[in-house]
Amino acid sequence: MTALSRRQVVLASGAVLITGPALARSPGAPASPANRWGLLIDTRKCAADCTVCVSACKAEMGLSGHDRPLTDAQYIRKIEVRDPVGGKLHSLPVMCQHCAKPPCVDVCPTGASMKRADGIVLVDRHICIGCRYCMMACPYKARSFAHEEQTGQQPHLPRGKGTVESCTLCVHRVDEGRLPACVEACAAKAKGAMLFGDLNDPASEIARRVASEATTRIRADLGLDPGVRYQGI
Amino acid sequence: MTAKTVYLEVRPYTRGWLALAAALGAVLAAALAAVWYMEHQGHWVTGMTNQVVWGMPHVFAVFLIVAASGALNIASMGSVFGREAYQPLARMSGLVAMALLAGGLMVLVLDLGRPDRLIVAMTHFNLKSIFTWNVVLYSGFFAVVAAYLWTMMDWRLKRFYKPAALAAFLWRLVLTTGTGCIFGFLVAREAYGAAVMAPLFIAMSFAFGLAAFILVLLYAAKTTRRPLDEALLGRMVRLLGLFVAANLYFVALHHLTQLYFAGRGGVEAFILAGGTIHTLLFWGVQVGLGGVLPLVMAFGGCRHSVRKRATMASLLVVLGGMAQVYVLIIGGQAWPLDLFPGMEVSSSFADGRIHAYTPTLPEVVLGLGGMAVAGLIILVGISALRLLPAEIRDSTPNR
């Protein structure tokens, strides 16, 4: 386990205090449309060589992989973006963007791809038939297909060969009032580039920053209204 | 005046019949073994990846499904458009259409990540999904064409013949529209995402379906020693030429539209001039062998007998059609999604680079299995029912 410096612990505790989501959802209570969970990612704090969020996601979701990059699942990946004019580099994490109008949900024949009332886009792997149409439809290449038997699974994320999966925004944590693993790890071990919160709550840090600072969405032109926003690109 | 057509079942269990059934059965058995292997191991043993999610099985499946609706055209020509010359072939046309669809659907279903959950697909419907509509359209196609066949074969239902013919024709148009829309409705795949995909698929279906039908007919006539009227065959070859021209027209329209949009220049350069397998298949096989050459054969410039021309042109259209579907499905996915237009990107998840795809043997065998199933259904169909005319000729000899 990586040892944390005092600075990182202070940073992490501050981040948790500032960005901790609302109260945990009581068991059995439905997700509320009053919430719109989202992320704000400040790419200016995101170093090219840092993959803390990716490692945290793999550990949290039990994505052990088979050392086959073309078929192993990746819920979150770091993308290096270079402006051909001038060569300016950006590095940023990309995961399911939890769109308000998700194409993956539109195209899914069985309704396995679905959006919760609070905006989190999920795959119900009990009724996913593995047709991969959602992977054709997603503009963000956010989904992976379980190409083989999975080992090392986590109790909160059962994975099944032959079904499609992607970032759940750590829904199991969010429902307990905790932060997504990537956000927590970025705050604890990196520069706290990721902010999680309720975009519908004007009092939340994320909503206040979105209201007062310039933010962008990847492929905003498609009109899908992603719940993940970026700064610095 | 219309000559009466006599239909006769094909005599089963002859040596040739058994040999053909065994050969088709062997291909089907190999396909099922391939499915068992791929499903048991998981899709990582195929050429498909998280980048190219649809592979050879989809090429075969889409080709067969598209050809299925087109194979019904011969029946529609006779009963909807009043071309009586084609009427004796209407029953065969219906059978071939259903057989091709069954073969295509088998491939599609057996390539699912969870084919055991087919019942889920039949009981959980998301009506916003064009896939769901296709499930309904494909299932309905069997029912509509079966009813249409019944009205052709049972004189007591003669009054339903025209309405059934019209319903089947309209159904097949909607079905192919739906298949085209599977690609047309994708917002971010630059190779598709256009309404022209629907009419393009209809034109493809006309050509592929008629070519498949001609090949089945030639083979059936030859092996059962039934006379096949050359004038009728000549008509069909010219009709095939017309359909091939329509397909080429929509292909040109699609690519010209793409080229006109600056943002789609990259994918067009990749397909049309990238120097990859897709470029070769597009120009060499789809346009050259499967488009221009059949056109030449259909409308002159070729002195071979009509039977030879029909065989060659149809084979080339099938070959070109497979190439066309390959370039569409695989080529379209090989081009990466553009998350940051105008920027250069790279990642551990293959962002920003052309995706490779190498078909594996099990995938191809599964696809061939779909064709074998279609063949078996046709073989059993013409053996059990009076679908194939004793003499395959124009029913309007005085014209």
Automatic annotation (TrEMBL), chain A:
InterPro entries, sorted: 4Fe4S_Fe-S-bd, 4Fe4S_Fe_S_CS, DsrO-like, ET_IronSulfur_Cluster-Binding, TAT_signal
Span of the signal peptide: 1-24
GO molecular function: 4 iron, 4 sulfur cluster binding; metal ion binding
Keyword Signal: yes
This protein's UniProt keywords: 4Fe-4S, Iron, Iron-sulfur, Metal-binding, Signal
Keyword field contains Oxidoreductase: no
CDD domains with a match to the protein in the record: PsrB (cd10551)
Superkingdom of the organism of origin: Bacteria
Sequence ranges assigned to domain 4Fe-4S ferredoxin-type in this UniProt record: 119-148
Gene3D superfamilies in UniProt: 3.30.70.20
Name under which the protein is recorded: 4Fe-4S ferredoxin
Organism: Paramagnetospirillum marisnigri
Upper taxonomic lineage: Bacteria, Pseudomonadati, Pseudomonadota, Alphaproteobacteria, Rhodospirillales
From TrEMBL, chain B:
Domain of life: Bacteria
A GO cellular-component term linked to this record: plasma membrane
Main location: membrane
InterPro entries, sorted: Electron_transfer_protein, NrfD-like
Subcellular location per the Swiss-Prot or TrEMBL entry: Cell membrane
Keyword Transmembrane helix in annotation: yes
Transmembrane segments: 17-38, 58-82, 89-110, 130-151, 163-188, 194-218, 239-261, 281-301, 313-335, 364-388
Assigned keywords, A-Z: Cell membrane, Membrane, Transmembrane, Transmembrane helix
Lipid bilayer topology: Multi-pass membrane protein
Pfam family, one: NrfD
Family, per entry: Belongs to the NrfD family.
Protein name: Molybdopterin oxidoreductase
